[in-house]
Amino acid sequence: MIDSNETIEEFLAEHASDVEEAIRKAAATEIMPRWRQLAAHEVEQKSGPHDLVTDADRKAELYLTEELGTLLPASVVVGEEAVHANPASYEAIRGDAPVWIVDPVDGTRQFVRGEAGFCTLVALAHRGTLLASWTYAPARDRLAYAQRGKGAHLDGERLFAGVPQPGRDLRVATSHPDYTTEEEKHALLGLRADGVAPRPCGSAGLEYLAIARGESDAVAFSWEAAWDHAAGLLLVEEAGGAHLTLAGEPFRIAGGNALPFTAARDAATARRVVSLLSGGA
């Protein structure tokens, strides 16, 4: 059993490229052959018409579960589709073993529509601390990697989120209304303020990447599912950004967060977004 982050750092030094290769192969064998080729029986609803799952989601997650578990035998995998089948498996995020957090196709709605705005998300965490993450957009063949304390990179180039341009409206991607309670909807109304330009989010992973690249200023999300957030939160952090919950605390992947929460290009913007959300609540 791995018992220290230092040991995981040694694993990453040797095997980060192997993780990337596994992600690329999962996309090449299980996702991209189905992109724009899905039959009706390969798409199902989970909790509603906006919560879809496809054969690509299921098969890519199975592929990654096997490959990542082989690379790091002491680890466990928490994947979106496995948790849907067995909700109790989510508890592994709170355990002592290193955990891979996997969203095989983030942006399934976009994938089903044949759009390019989807990605595969993988994060490695230990005892609640995010240590590494991979965000791969296979239709665009772009891969972002972040490692705690070592920065964030996109296709090998260092990412710096920077700060929002003075005098320009804050560009903020927000939760889809179907995934918000009435209280959260009311909080999000706080973003309808002068100097803010809210819009519905697309793939969460790609929204986080846009912040890390300085193309977007913030997100305001109202759900906790770690597979949607883990990879992107570390990416934003390592690009110089910050994240805060409605309680003014960093988001915890183990859960128990005051929602909505934000991730932003810098700490000042994160505080501003939380202040607006608090005013709307």
TrEMBL record:
Give the species this sequence originates from.
Streptomyces variegatus
The protein's matches in Pfam families, at most eight in alphabetical order, are given as: Inositol_P (PF00459)
For whether the record's keyword set contains Magnesium, the answer is: yes
Q: Which residues cross the membrane?
A: none
- Please give the biological process terms from Gene Ontology that the record holds: inositol metabolic process; phosphatidylinositol phosphate biosynthetic process; signal transduction
Q: Which UniProt keywords apply?
A: Hydrolase, Magnesium, Metal-binding
InterPro entries per record: Inositol_monoP_metal-BS, Inositol_monophosphatase-like, Inositol_monophosphatase_CS
- Name the source's superkingdom: Bacteria
GO MF terms here are:
inositol monophosphate 1-phosphatase activity; metal ion binding
Binding sites annotated in the UniProt record for Mg(2+): 80, 103, 106, 228
Which first-to-last residue range defines the signal peptide? none
Cofactors demanded by this protein:
Mg(2+)
Catalytic activity annotation: a myo-inositol phosphate + H2O = myo-inositol + phosphate
Q: What is its EC number?
A: 3.1.3.25
**Protein's name according to its UniProt entry:** inositol-phosphate phosphatase
